[in-house]
């Protein structure tokens, strides 16, 4: 039986048999070409630096998420280095384009390790990142996926791997709790079953929502991964069902197109979702006059930076730095998410007893109630981060922070 968390994806043929990886790895400024392997797991300062290898997508379907996450990491690295680095040792990075293909990602990971990477950062997705992560684990490196949300990633890789994104459990439970708090007792679900990211949220949502008296009265499966752009049939079913809330579990921009068509059809039912809706591109796509009653569970509220005084000042500073470095506002939630996670990892790396991947992993696992800009990391469990979710709203075309939930309380309520 196929693993239930492997997405059903139609992989493009990106590399012909026997093709080389020539030119796939591009060094960031200051990164060495060549050098010894980082496979020992040592985090010792080498030539005045600790080298972080980044095996993520700069091209292909995953690049929208991976590029934002990589940039969030780069902001964190700049901030850490400005404070003196890790115990006086500056962090430098070296990166390779995985082209959104897990087979190429494994090759890139090997190349980065050969070039001296001491920490390996892989894609912000279980399916595209697991092959590269297993290379890092096998070579003994501290290996990270800074914004991946799957709760099975760590179990599939090993004891020196950590995924830092808010989990599908917290996203699903946060949506359910908010729906119940709003007394939305009937849900129509628009679901892309091609991603474990959505099917895992569905399971968590139902566990708390139906246990609290809610009912998922209708489900329509869509193919946002395949670029579906016509949702007229789905909208007709929603009109007939007359639910209290529409839960939209699909990727952007297709999920934005769905909301646009829903509102254009005169359906003003509240829409509830997750961080695939968390982008300033959403109200542009839907139309400011129709971007209303849209809510989503997220790891961090950054959307209102510069416009909403409720934004955490540290996250507002992050957004300004990001815009200065890359020329625009953070395009997607993986940017601040990766930033938060790497700052949490840095807290562990700063401990005097952390000298290698094994001691770093121990220090990370011991973190509890860690405050970082924009949020609280409750704990690490089975290699994944447990974040307390926040609910963000898009009301009248403007982003706002609506409420937040404690992750431990949510899990207890779902149990």
Secondary-structure map with pairings?
Elements: E1 25-27, E2 49-56, H1 63-82, E3 90-97, H2 102-114, E4 119-122, H3 126-138, E5 142-145, H4 153-157, E6 161-163, H5 168-181, E7 186-191, H6 196-211, E8 215-221, H7 232-241, E9 245-249, H8 254-264, E10 271-273, H9 281-286, E11 294-298, H10 313-326, H11 334-349, H12 357-365, E12 368-372, E13 375-381, E14 384-387, E15 390-395, E16 398-404, H13 407-414
Parallel strand pairs: 2-3, 2-4, 4-5, 5-6, 7-8, 7-9, 9-10, 10-11
Antiparallel strand pairs: 1-3, 11-15, 12-13, 13-14, 15-16
Helix pairs in contact: 1-11, 2-3, 5-6, 5-13, 11-12
Strand content: 15-25%
Basic shape: globular
Order of helices and strands: EEHEHEHEHEHEHEHEHEHEHHHEEEEEH
Rg calculated over all Cα atoms = 21 Å
**Count the helices. How many?**
13
Main beta sheet: 7 strands, mixed
Going by helix content, strand content and strand pairing, the class is: alpha/beta
Structural write-up:
By secondary structure, the protein is α/β, with parallel strands linked by helices. Helices cover 37% and strands 20% of the residues. The protein has 13 helices and 16 strands. The strands form three sheets. A seven-stranded mixed β-sheet has the order 8-7-9-10-11-15-16, sandwiched between helices. Strand 5, helix 4 and strand 6 form a beta-alpha-beta unit.
